[in-house]
Design brief:
Radius of gyration: 20 Å
Number of domains: 2
Helix content: 40-55%
CATH topology of the largest domain: Dehydroquinate synthase-like, alpha domain
Structural class: alpha/beta
CATH class of the largest domain: Mainly Alpha
Shape: globular
Strand order of the largest sheet: 1-2-9-6-5-3-4
Bound molecules: nicotinamide-adenine-dinucleotide, zinc ion
Order of helices and strands: EEEHEHEHEHEEEHHHHHHHHEEH
Amino acid sequence: MPSFTVVTTAQRYEAIVETGALARLSEFLPSPAAKVFVVTTEDVWQLHGSTVASALSGRSWHRLLFPGGEARKRLSSVEALAEEMVSLGGDRSSIVVAFGGGIVNDLGGFLAAIFMRGVPVVQVPTTLLAQVDAAVGGKTGANLTSGKNLVGAFHQPLVVLTDPSVLHTLPEREYRAGLFEVIKHGIIASEPLFRLMQLERPSVLARDPAAMQQMIAESVRIKSEVVSADEKEGGLRRILNFGHTVGHAFEAETSYTRFLHGEAVGLGMKAAAHLSRLTGRLDAPTCQDILDVVDAYGPFPTLDGIQTENLFARLVNDKKSILGRVHFVLATRIGATEVAAGLAPELIREAIASTLR
Ligand SMILES: NC(=O)c1ccc[n+]([C@@H]2O[C@H](COP(=O)([O-])OP(=O)(O)OC[C@H]3O[C@@H](n4cnc5c(N)ncnc54)[C@H](O)[C@@H]3O)[C@@H](O)[C@H]2O)c1
Ligand SMILES: [Zn+2]
């Protein structure tokens, strides 16, 4: 069973990537007497709930429905779920299973982090983005009116159970959006993963089980290693932000309505590749390889109306900027990066302009 160990100060746990893992959920839940609360959304439950229900048969468990969507990823939703948990007899020995996309993983994880000052959570991600990114690492939280993910907690899961077969029902655009985070993992840490995305595009897009297993497992391995080395994003974990500096600017500039997060990261990676080349870190052919691979997993929503100057202005306000200095994760080759700050504004503008062309 392909499994990757995450070691943090709070917890040591396994991130399992295996077809059929969902059916084995019960094996990973301690104490058979503990009540299990499955946080999920209606759509995911309709598609895959029966597998979870049969996996939990014989146990005491409840389903907690969450309406879904970024607009509902709020403290008020966590409060409502916590109230429901109490009314269903939840206590300090209960276990939360966060079964859904990244929103459910973040919100369910946060619920577990604060319910009765903390109960265990099992992360069961069902989107590609959540499987390769959100479910591993223990970051949980909710949005405020003032911005995304501005409240939250680190709460490492008991186990992360990833079953690639649930991705067959994922809408095409959501699937492609997740692929950009896979490409990111290749660029920052794994040339074989990058080559898989470059050379096996038809199998990847056809959701061939072998291709999915390979790309998800390799992404989870990388994320697990990075998180183990740097649990709270002090240094190394920043490499996971490759493509995210300009990507966040694309999202914010279009009020989070035009691009899915992964799509914005795809565009941000193009800008990062240009900037890596313009600052002399990356050779032109490798830069072109990155641009080509990203474009091969498009199409992207229109870039109409987006101005270089407006994106540039947003970088300075990014929450990841430290003391007003914008930090960029730049590629030095496929599989290696470095963090750079204080880059010439003209080069940043040129990298953005090249992305918009
Ligand atoms: N904690 C972290 O480290 C981390 C990392 C990356 C992203 N995130 C968070 O993840 C969220 C985005 O996650 P997402 O992209 O998964 O979006 P999402 O959770 O909204 O899921 C996308 C849509 O797909 C549906 N869906 C989920 N699984 C499905 C399946 N198997 N078949 C069919 N439909 C399915 C969902 O109900 C939803 O409508 C953001 O809130 C972001 O902040 C967190
Ligand atoms: Zn991301």
